[in-house]
Specification:
Elements: H1 3-11, E1 61-62, E2 69-72, E3 92-94, E4 109-112, E5 114-116, E6 124-127, E7 133-136, E8 144-147, E9 154-159, E10 162-167, E11 173-178, E12 183-186, E13 200-206, E14 212-218, E15 223-224, E16 228-229, E17 237-242, E18 249-253, E19 258-261, E20 267-271, E21 278-284, E22 290-295, E23 305-309, E24 315-317, E25 327-328, E26 337-341, E27 354-359, E28 365-370, E29 385-386, E30 392-397, E31 408-413
Antiparallel strand pairs: 1-2, 2-31, 3-5, 4-6, 6-7, 8-9, 9-10, 10-11, 12-13, 13-14, 14-15, 14-16, 17-18, 18-19, 19-20, 21-22, 22-23, 23-24, 25-26, 26-27, 27-28, 29-30, 30-31
Amino acid sequence: MNSQARLWFLAITLSSLVLPPTVAAKRPADIKPRLEPCKLISDQAIHNAPRLAKPPYLTPVTDPVFATQITRITGDPGTQVANIPGGIWGSVARHHYSKDQAWNADESLIFLDRNEAGGRGAPLFLDGETYRPLFSRRPPGDGEVRWHSSDPSLMVFAAENTLGTWNVRTGSMTLLAKFDGYEDLKIGPYEGNLSADGHLIVLTGRNRRGAPVMLVYDLKNGSSRAEIALSTVTKTLDWASISASGKFIVVNDDDDRTFILDYDGVVVSRFKEYGRPSHYDLALDASGEDIAVGVSKSPPDEGLVIARRLRDGASVALTEAGYATHSSTRNIRRSGRGFSDFEKTKTVRPYNGEVITYSLARDVVYRIAHHRNVVRDYLSGTHASPSPTGDRVIFVSNWGALGGRPVQAYVADFRGLCRS
């Protein structure tokens, strides 16, 4: 994420129709709670967060409003990290980002990208069920990594001019490709993902002339596509990614506008409005269409979470109130829902300071937990991100600390309340 977007952050499926501006949001009295298939609350009433003491490390507590189980999975700053020789919990200990999956393919591991204790500190791997630390290990070349879609021991990495897989348990590395004449290859940077089947990836970097470019690589067949010059699309890249289906290349620029390209670099569709959507993730709708899911920052649906079809820009609103911050569809093994978090303010209603999940078919919104986070800077962003099965969600919270620290990771578990 670029610095301009971070500064903004501090300041505050599909039909073929765009939600018209004249459609009024339903009043809370018009919304009847939906308890099936989930037992999570799905009304639009205002549920203020009652006082709740900060959960002790690894001691689950129950959200007093939404009945989900919340566990703080990072320890108190300055204390020893169990099983990690010399490891100390820092004032910032958290996962990477909302659309970077924290759990591996079978949810046996959680990857914490950052544990700052006098420095950034090495990444940590936790047990995916008990949340106890297991080991600490840096990716090859300290490059970017994403979990493999099916092998729970592997991450896909990009570093310098190489792409490979990394066995996080053994530390072994398998080189998939070396791109001679290219440098500073990134997955996005920072916000890109693999296709839903894990076969395709977009890498951004520079060619031998220093020009910014994109490369599409097929991990299944071991082949790469031709170089695409970013200058033909935008002068200010924020990030790029392959779409969920693998059919499109998605480019988001520093003006928060989106370009959808084919493999030849031809723009097939554009989202010309500012941030419509913004801070979004990529997914497939029920008919297999590629969509972008995130908050809209422009009319006619400003403040609502929308799903927007990549091939033609058709959109639909998935929420009817509130102003979401970040959104995620990393629940790739049980798709069909999106997840968003909302800042704690006096104006965001009704999901003030909450993490929610909603159907991509626009039939229901479920409310998961109050995150009790006070956003002071980028690292204290809530960045809620679901597990692959979509019945747990990791998020960041400083639990109301006015100074914004410590920043710690929490998991809201609703497996007993919502499985489908």
